[in-house]
Write a structure and sequence with these properties.
The protein is an all-alpha fold. It has two helices and no strands. Helix 1 packs antiparallel against helix 2. The chain starts with 8 loop residues before the first helix and ends in a 13-residue tail after the last helix.
Length: 75
């Protein structure tokens, strides 16, 4: 079973900074590419999570709506 790890925005900033530092200072190109790939995946996942969270927040605030037929008042 795969567990979900919940990173805070602060955690994400620290990890991004570490990956960028590693890319700058590592002289081996294949490792630098690995760091870059992980950074891109992480950024993509963060963007998806933010989008989902924004959608969920919108749904929670909207609540349930009822449409009432007011045409009976016209008769």
């Amino acid at each position: 079973m795969r567990e979900t790890v919940n990173f805070t925005s602060h955690d994400v900033i620290i990890i991004e900074r570490a990956l960028r530092t590693a890319m700058k200072h590592d002289r081996e190109e294949h490792r630098s590419r690995d760091y870059h790939e992980v950074l891109l995946k992480m950024q993509e996942n963060v963007e998806q999570a933010l989008t989902v969270n924004a959608q969920l927040a919108t749904i929670e605030h909207e609540g349930i709506r009822y449409d009432y037929d007011d045409s009976s008042d016209l008769m």
